Amino acid sequence: MVDVASNINLSPTHSKDAIQMALDLAYKQALSHTEGHLADYIPELALMNPDRLGLAVMTAKGRLYTVGDVNEPFTIQSISKAFSYCLALELVGAEKVRARVGVEPSGDAFNAIEFDPVTRCPFNPMVNAGAITVAGILRDVYQQDAFEKVLERFSKAASRQLELDESVYLSEKATGHRNRAISHLLCASGVLAEPVDEAVDLYFRLCSIRVTATDLAIMAATFANMGENPVTGEEVFELKAIRDTLAVMYSCGMYDFSGSWICDTGIPAKSGVGGGVIGVVNRQLGIGSFAPRLDEKGNSVQGVIAIKSLSDELGLHTFECSNTGSSFVEQLIR
Ligand code: GLU
Q1: Predicted TM-score (pTM) of this structure
Q2: Fold of 4-77+209-332
Q3: Which of 7, 54, 181, 223 could, after both became Cys, cross-link 290 (CB 3.0–4.6 A)?
């Protein structure tokens, strides 16, 4: 892994530009919102310091903006689902993945024990049932090296070597009966192949990868930059797989709050119970936030407020008239 710290293009601190000002405002707006609770169904997560707030933005050209606790480590949890799904799409193709995991919003909790009544498959890859099936696909491809291989790809997206948080992993492994139950049901209906326990173990490990808000912003910017890490210039993910991943993040990334979220922010996103959120503004920027108090749906209270504020201030909503995105049709006409 290249040491990229010196490659990161920090935003100028002398003359504050619009992104830094919007980020500072988002931080200020979120800071007083100390409502919500740490996730405690994974005992180790209940030990986090709740008073942390970090926001980071990386543009698709690699300029980094930060405020607050952006170097504080925490576990990626469900945000891993987006990157694992992208990888599975690339490795075995969308058709094979779609045959086992749907792309419909479930409108239900992330850990619900429910499957599509017609296909018997998980509703989508952003809920636990879908992500465990995706882990099964990754495990089939990479066999016993699966965790190392996937970690390597996540690390390339973050532009630094990421690591497993062993205590969170062991804590989730010791208490993750519900996820094990889901995996055995998936196996019974033929969606998840044996060895089931290996698939769940990979899922637990992927959720327990330690990241920072800065890492998440770079990973999100890698998605925004069509798969090329803007810091290292390395191709990390395939564009077609990113397209499908962002589409599912758009409709299913924020648990059963996804509809309100997308109306309010217009930013494909994914959150995790470790307190992280990523947002991807296509071709423009990646957002990473960390604030561990969660609302009743499982989303970071302060992360939601801050990213909504950023979207409003910078006009990032997909359908905002200020967001011209990649207006290639106009270029074709010219
Ligand atoms: N590892 C967590 C679980 O399976 C992830 C949940 C989440 O972040 O949504 O319960």
Answers
A1: 0.94
A2: Beta-lactamase (3.40.710)
A3: 54
